[in-house]
Amino acid sequence: SQQGEEDPQALSIQEGENATMNCSYKTSINNLQWYRQNSGRGLVHLILIRSNEREKHSGRLRVTLDTSKKSSSLLITASRAADTASYFCATDDPGGSQGNLIFGKGTKLSVKP
Amino acid sequence: KAGVTQTPRYLIKTRGQQVTLSCSPISGHRSVSWYQQTPGQGLQFLFEYFSETQRNKGNFPGRFSGRQFSNSRSEMNVSTLELGDSALYLCASSFSTGTYNEQFFGPGTRLTVL
User: Fold this and answer.
1) Is A98 an 8 Å CB contact of chain B?
2) B93 touches chain A (CB under 8 A)
3) Cα A43–A44–A45 angle (5° rounding)?
4) Tens digits of residue pLDDT in A28-59
5) Share of chain A above pLDDT 90, in %
6) Does the CB of B90 have a partner CB in chain A at under 8 Å?
7) Does any CB of chain B come closer than 8 Å to the CB of residue A43?
8) Of A51, A54, B24, B101, which sits with the fewest C-beta atoms within 10 Å of its C-beta?
């Protein structure tokens, strides 16, 4: 079953602009992770944020987590054409093992040069 | 450190055949999870292995099975292939020693069933 839902489904921006993607989930979580996938390839881990954290930064990435609203956002600043990819949020399954991630359907980001 | 590797990268099979996919985790990682990705259903959890034991299983028919070896390498098998099994199969590994476990994914195996 789907836990996370990303919004928007697709996003098209110009190079240099910021891109914001949102993720909502349904049940309580221990952590939330963001992944990037380039056109049918494997997933690249971007960042993990714990349930007791509110914000985390990694390079041009900024992730926020609001457990009261069961939502997270991923901000990519000063976007580049190479950021063109699909972005997924994934939550752990509190009722399952640690190895079971539940993914949303993703946001397809297109950055035009 | 070498990343997660999956073999083969591409596979074409016909309905009714069976297939075995292989995954080698990052050195030191003991947990291996498998996921199926299709355009319609997205990324769905198949199963997870830890120390050669299946720790969790997703909602897939019994035609999908897996195993893990003592060196943490894992294989998944799909028997009696159906057209709907065409998908990208991804495996991921993690240390799995605590609550906050990053999973690292391999490049995937693209399976096409004709």
Assistant:
1) yes
2) no
3) 115
4) 888 899 999 998 788 999 999 999 999 999 99
5) 73
6) yes
7) yes
8) A54
| Contact between chains at A45 and B103 (C-beta distance less than 8 A) | yes
For B7-21, b/e burial (b = at least 16 CB within 10 A) is: eeeeeebeeeeebeb
Place of tokens 């003991």: B30
Identity of residue B28: G
- Is residue B113 within a helix (H) or strand (E), and if so which, with residue range? strand B109-113
**pLDDT for res A1:** 47
CB pairs under 8 A between A and B: 78
Mean pLDDT computed over every residue of chain B: 93
Q: Looking up tokens 């836990």, which residue turns up?
A: A3
Write out pLDDT tens, residues B56-82: 899 999 999 999 999 999 999 999 999
Q: How far apart are the first and last CA of chain B?
A: 37
pLDDT(B109) > 60: yes
Closest CA of chain A from B75, distance in Å = 16
Closest by CA to A37, choosing from B109, B101, B105, is B105
Q: Give the burial class of B89: count Cβ atoms within 10 A of its Cβ; 0-12 exposed, 13-18 middle, 19 or more buried.
A: buried
Return the pLDDT at B1.
67
How long, in residues, is chain B? 114
Mean pLDDT, rounded, for A79-95: 90
